[in-house]
Amino acid sequence: MSASTTVAAAQPAWLLPPPEASFAGQPDNLTALRRSAWEQFTETGLPNTRREAWRHTNLDPLKQFAFRPQAGDVPVSAEALAPYRLDGEIGAVCVNGTFRPDLSNLANLPEGAVLESLAAAIGRGALEQLQAFEFDQDQPAEGLSMAWLQDGIYLQVPQGVVIEQPLHFYFVSTGNDDSTVSFPRVHIQSGDNCQLALVEHHIGLGSQPRLTCSVTRIEVGPGAVVEYLRLLEEGAGAHHLASITARQQAGSQLQMTGLSTGGDLQRNDVTAALEGEGASHRMAGLYLVRGREQVDNHTRIDHMAPHTSSVETYKGILDGQGRGIFTGRIVVHPAGQQTDARQTNRNLMLSDQALVHTDPQLEIFADDVKCSHGSTVGQVDDEAMFYIRSRGIGMAEAHRLLVHGFSAEVLEQISHPLLRAVATEQVNRWLEELPAP
Amino acid sequence: MSDELKTIESITSQEYKYGFVTDIEQETIPPGLDEDVVRLISAKKSEPDWLLEWRLKAFRHWTKLQAAGAEPTWAKVKYPPIDYQKIVYYAAPKSMPALSSLDEVDPKLLETYAKLGIPLEEQKQLAGVAVDAVFDSVSVATTFKETLAEAGVIFCPFSEAVQKYPELVRKYLGSVVPYTDNFFAALNSAVFSDGSFVYLPKGVRSPMELSTYFRINAANTGQFERTLIIAEEGAYVSYLEGCTAPMRDENQLHAAVVELIVLDDAEIKYSTVQNWYPGDKNGVGGIYNFVTKRGACRGDRSKISWTQVETGSAITWKYPSCILQGDDSIGEFYSVALTNNYQQADTGTKMIHLGKRTRSTIISKGISAGKGQNTYRGQVKIMPGAQGARNYSQCDSLLIGDQCSAHTFPYIDVRNASAQMEHEASTSRIGEDQIFYCRQRGISTEDAVSMIVNGFCKDVFRQLPMEFAVEATKLLEVSLEGSVG
Fold first, then answer.
1. Do the Cβ atoms of A349 and B402 come within 8 Å?
2. Which residue has the higher pLDDT, B303 or A24?
3. pTM of the complete model
């Protein structure tokens, strides 16, 4: 006990102000922004479990790790990424948070669209867009990521451009000798009536403990159709704090799906603001948890304009001593008349030691609305099991089939076939290791 | 639509019907709270030393909480800070009548009850309901004592129980809601003045429904009653409580504690119709109803059922809960909460599943009108030992008018894979098509709204004893009269 206290008392490097050297060569306004972000972060620091939004997730154990930002120019072989490549994809790769043109493949990018390193975009004056979103005090990744800002991916799709090939953003963290912290950022600007499908893929290649503080901003212009898939597959030793924020203008459609398999601790804050009339949103998530892993999903959907709709589906499968947490909030603002919002959270418990906290929440300030939420926790249905087994299918296989069936509802919602395929593969990899009941 | 709006206005402008002050001589102590006040209250009731000690411990704990700024702020309700030194902690009608018969009760008191629609005389004939009326903080009349005594049921004011059955009170007091439980429970434990005590020996089914009526009368008083119900093995009781307060401009504090203890195969059914003064249509005045209610299903196959209809109070803040300890025990919670004008309600339940195959059902119906704010907040916790536990929750909200709001915050923690938990919630307003359908058939908008609201609450009203169901339906009509569009 006393040993851990002494470790916690000395702040690790990633909780100290970023070193002066990291500001070298950056424009003054960025330096000012980073310093003020650090100020904002220190106001609250790493949240403790007394904060409502963090009641079930304790970040104190993170303080024992001396995470350090790593160089982005470490060698990463093309083969390491090969298994994940999609046909005809437009691939952009960040290693330890730094954009790597050598590993990226932007050949299929249509004319007019801009896909580049965030540092380059800031150099061209895109800094304002970094500030276009409110700073979420409840998510420490926000402040840390801005304070340590080095690089990321910037995508701008102008009016009317349709990108048929999937965009694939890789965030690779390495570190076989040292604990790594990285701060990847993604900024997406989609103009009027454009269309795109995007995968944000976090992959861990190192063996040492890692921390990723990831921030994603998506602006969806009027009438634009955007599909966004977030894959987390970082393996043992990975810790992930993410803040994903989207804003939707009139008549736009956005579909966000998050898939989590692997990683010691994950916390995803997903927020969508439906600002324009008639915007529609689909939010889905699948968290597969085993061992002593923990996944904490916090979602919030704001209906701020009339005739907006949202459908939210989060599903969890929990094995071992896994912990799954879901807090979903739907807020209908006074202007959000004729809102139609549905939210469901379903959890499948495969083990007695697993734990689920589910807090679906509705906050409604308008009267002409249709809102509902539902949440369930249950186990594999004995009758369904019997049915399959009576047809000559073995115990382990039957179990896997049923678990797969449970996850299918989320996977089927992914519209782009290539995106669906890559997500399904990831789920299958997890299922292969599923022990028989 | 304009017609509907007018109806809404006429309904919402309905004044509080029970706002009259009964002019009875009251015995009060000066406002303020310190150890002397606690000692004084205890002395006035000639309490034994152990109870005074307990009160003092509670008071010291409360002082500590207050000094630490631990007054809870997490609920979704807003109110100016309460000055606990301005409250009168004890108010009793001065001339305590001998209680051998109703004739000896102060006629003015009886008149009060008559205005409230529950005349004791009638109650006496209305076989099946015994009334223990709590006026401010002291029980003044108890009927049907003999019938109950024959059956072996103890039903008496709390202070009387302290004198007559100290060993029972001492054994169970604070065993479900300890004084350290929360800020208001600590305050109540220190200054509670009276309440009801019910004890059912082994195997006894109460021959009638028990009922208590609470009324806050004096200005600036707080009502801190304490109810303790114990059902021994195989016993059954249905207990009703009703509440009103006269019109007072200042907010009055009501911080009660209710403890239920149920042993093997026993059952307690606890129904509340709460109609405290909600404040006027500008949000001035009204009761702060901060109540801790909790029942422990200690025995196997025991059952607790909470039913509440909350139409009053400026602020309602309560979570009747069940601790399901015994195997196969059952917890139920049925609630209708209505908020109109500036009323705020943050209410719900807690179901803690500890025993095997424990089951719980939660049905909550929230209705918001005017600028009312209605929040459901509930917790379902299934602990590792609760093999095969089952929970079903349903929370529906109905919105009337465009300035009210409805919120749902369920907290669900499951730590056992064999548990089955379902939660559903919906929010909607009264559909124009529904109104149209009724209007088409010659039903006025107001009647249509009343019909729809009653239909919305049916699942809960069905749980209420007959007399209460009628009263609850009436209350809802009064509170909403014509109000919906």
1. no
2. B303
3. 0.80
